[in-house]
Amino acid sequence: MNKILISWIGRTDLRAVEESATIGLGPIAQAIGSISFDQAVLIFDYPKIEIDKYLRWLSGIKKIPTTLHQATLTSPTNFGEIYETAVKTIMECLDACNYNAELTFHLSPGTPAMAAVWILLAKTQFSAQLIESSKEHGVKIANVPFDISAEFIPSLLTRSDERLEQLTAGLPPNAPEFDNIIHRSPNMQRLIAKARLAAPRSVPVLIEGESGTGKELLARAIHKTSPRHSKRFVAVNCGAIPQELVESEFFGHKKGAFTGAVSDRRGYFETANGGTLFLDEIGELPLAAQVKILRVLQEKEVTRVGDTKPTSIDIRIVAATNRSLLTEIAEQRFRADLFYRLAVAVLHIPPLRERQGDISLLIDYFLENDDSEPNKKVHKKISSTARNLLLSHPWPGNVRELLNTLRRASVWTAGDTIQADDVREALFSVDSVPKEYVLNRSISEGFNIQEVISEVARHYLARAMEETGENKSKAAKKLGLSNYQTLTNWLVKYGLEQ
Ligand SMILES: Nc1ncnc2c1ncn2[C@@H]1O[C@H](COP(=O)(O)OP(=O)(O)OP(=O)(O)O)[C@@H](O)[C@H]1O
Prior knowledge:
By secondary structure, the protein is an alpha/beta fold. The chain has four domains: 2-156, Rossmann fold (3-Layer(aba) Sandwich), CATH 3.40.50; 162-348, 3-Layer(aba) Sandwich (Rossmann fold); 352-428, Orthogonal Bundle (Helicase, Ruva Protein, domain 3); 435-493, Arc Repressor Mutant, subunit A (Orthogonal Bundle). Helix content is 44%, strand content 14%. The chain has helices at residues 11-23, 27-34, 48-61, 79-96, 112-123, 162-168, 186-198, 215-225, 246-251, 268-271, 287-299, 325-330, 336-342, 358-369, 384-391, 398-412, 420-428, 435-439, 449-467, 472-479, 484-493; strands spanning 2-8, 39-44, 66-70, 101-106, 128-134, 138-141, 205-208, 233-237, 252-253, 265-266, 276-280, 301-302, 311-312, 316-321, 345-348, 381-382, 417-418.
């Protein structure tokens, strides 16, 4: 675990370079001198030349790996800007060490507004220790004996967003079709505004985003807002179609076209005619199928396998991908001509960890609306520590993982309030197996290497199924297995499937 000190550089720190004999070392030097940190992350809003001088001086006091973050504040008391800078710095720092960090925020350097923001963050979004220091009393752990609900934070951020205002200028104020995409973060607001602009025009849309970010939900909202809303929305998971069936699934077939073609059958293109065809995981389509699909899109007609007569089709394509198609093109796994045909309106859904304020809103929404057990309409509440634990999780499986974690946590909660321990248990059940635990077992009596391997296999199989919403093709890919059939064999072998 990396012990990281995060601090603003304050006036007293900078003065210490020349005046340490009278004012002491300043709060940062005092802290790194008396507590052993692996790294210091320092934020500054002073001229770089002064900061460089300070760092040279600081390294003479104690050498410690240091990362600098420059802030541009319109005023040192602007809460919104201080908050955004602090969150961005913390997130970058957590990302860099893969969330394996024990954070300490220093309250003393900087303005009271900066200290207030550290307290808010340590009591809500991030689990961090707070310290303060002074020449007279040395370095102390700051004891702040209360919890704050993270609900209060986003109000600090209510700033106008020019880009959003431009985007929404011509749009009607309400968009009921988009109402079930729960969000309030500025980046999601901009995304939804762009989606609302693209929706009524029949242009192809490419939605990019990690697994579980809500790509299908967005695609459905776009369809419902489009002039095609009364026609069908057909969702196809391109990764789940066995290669040999791609043609007949997309284009349909005539009775007798191949063994097993016992009757005429329409393909996805014909089924979606007049409406929207949602091609999920488009990056998974084999190259041969890409050529054929491109041809259908160009010629606007489709011929069933075994038939000679083409049928005209009029569909809107909304495609989705969780990989970068440009990388796929560079590696010759995806055709550039198909990409340019699909990527007319490109919408990038940010991962949940980058959506400021959305997690809390989603928690409330899911607790209020989860209908996975319609007969048990007991809506649980959640304690503020449990909520904060959820807020500080990185959510690699995004909204889907948050939803499943809440479901698990509420199953194990006996009372009507989900507590921090329930959340820990729900998170832990799919969290990574601690490396030390697996590798450091005693190999004396009772040790069984097969058992240990099974344990690791079961853990990762369950986790991949969880993070992909039980989509076997995707889970196989995540685990480096060749296809869904191989994954099924593993699931059976390790007792996760009958
Ligand atoms: N902003 C949101 N508000 C409410 N529910 C959401 C939101 N985003 C996602 N969900 C829910 O999370 C789950 C996953 O969403 P969805 O299937 O749309 O994600 P996806 O990006 O298409 O996933 P995949 O890449 O695995 O196909 C669904 O149950 C969806 O309803």
